[in-house]
């Protein structure tokens, strides 16, 4: 007997709600064709974001960037254009892009970071400081292996293969 699956539309919330000012803007999921276009356009940007680098929309000219935001925000684009400033429109557009490409968790992370790459993926110094202070996820328990660069046993002349010393 085959597995019984729930209806797909019951499994997913196919909208993204972004609070801006005193309003909430509900961005619908793009069509499959538009979603694939966004995926192709933003593959590089998603890689940059996951590595903690700034999203460089200068890879797109102004017209291409506006097209990307229109694709990502759908019918909400015109509302946002009329009601918010550029920084808010851009942040909403990039958040929607990450939602489309990588899912809601990535979009939430980007939204909370305010677009600051250092808040997306801590740099090496921040990670080291977190480990030293114990706020990181690294365990304080030493591993069984030696960290001093020496082995646990000393080799003796009689234990070596190949002859006497």
Give the helix/strand layout.
Blueprint (H helix, E strand, L loop, with lengths): L7 H4 L3 E6 L2 E6 L3 H19 L11 H12 L2 H8 L2 H17 L1 H10 L3 H4 L3 H10 L32
Antiparallel strand pairs: 1-2
Helix pairs in contact: 2-5, 3-5, 5-6
What does this structure look like?
The structure is a single chain. The chain is mainly α. Helix content is 51%, strand content 7%. It has eight helices and two strands; from the N terminus they run H-E-E-H-H-H-H-H-H-H. It has helices at 8-11, 32-50, 62-73, 76-83, 86-102, 104-113, 117-120, 124-133; strands spanning 15-20, 23-28. The chain has a two-stranded antiparallel sheet. A hairpin with a 2-residue loop joins strand 1 and strand 2. Helix 2 (32-50) crosses helix 5 (86-102) and helix 5 (86-102) packs antiparallel against helix 6 (104-113). The chain starts with 7 loop residues before the first helix and ends in a 32-residue tail after the last helix. The relative contact order is 0.11. Residues 136-156 have low confidence and may be disordered.
List its traits.
165 residues, mainly alpha, two-stranded antiparallel ribbon, 8 helices, 51% helix, 7% strand, globular
